[in-house]
Amino acid sequence: ESSTFDGNKARRLGGAIHINGSSIVIKDTTFFENTSTDGWGGAIMLYEGNLEVSGSSTFEGNSAAYGGAVFTYSSEGSINETTFVGNIASWRGGAITMHQSTLEVSGS
């Protein structure tokens, strides 16, 4: 809660955070210019887990091949009251890419 992830980098899975088979709750958090250089989820990569993002969180300037800000695989969750600005994917989903996933997005 109330955290900043700025300028983090990973080659493949989640520039700032990689979650595998777990759940994460993110509130009032900023993800700024994080990068997954050759892979998935510039800020967050979620595999077989649950993602809850809320409370005026921001994803800005993140980049990846797939899911400039967020990539989910076989996952579920919700994104509420969240801002996505200037995120970039070289292949798919500048802000979000989902594969076999369910995300509820509201107020964002």
TrEMBL record:
Main location: other
Keyword Signal among record annotations: yes
InterPro entries reported in the protein's UniProt record: Pectin_lyase_fold/virulence, POMP_repeat
Alphabetic keyword roster: Cell outer membrane, Membrane, Secreted, Signal
Identification of the protein by name: Right handed beta helix domain-containing protein
Pfam families: Chlam_PMP
Gene Ontology terms: cellular component: extracellular region
Organism, as annotated: Grammatophora oceanica
Segments passing through the bilayer: none
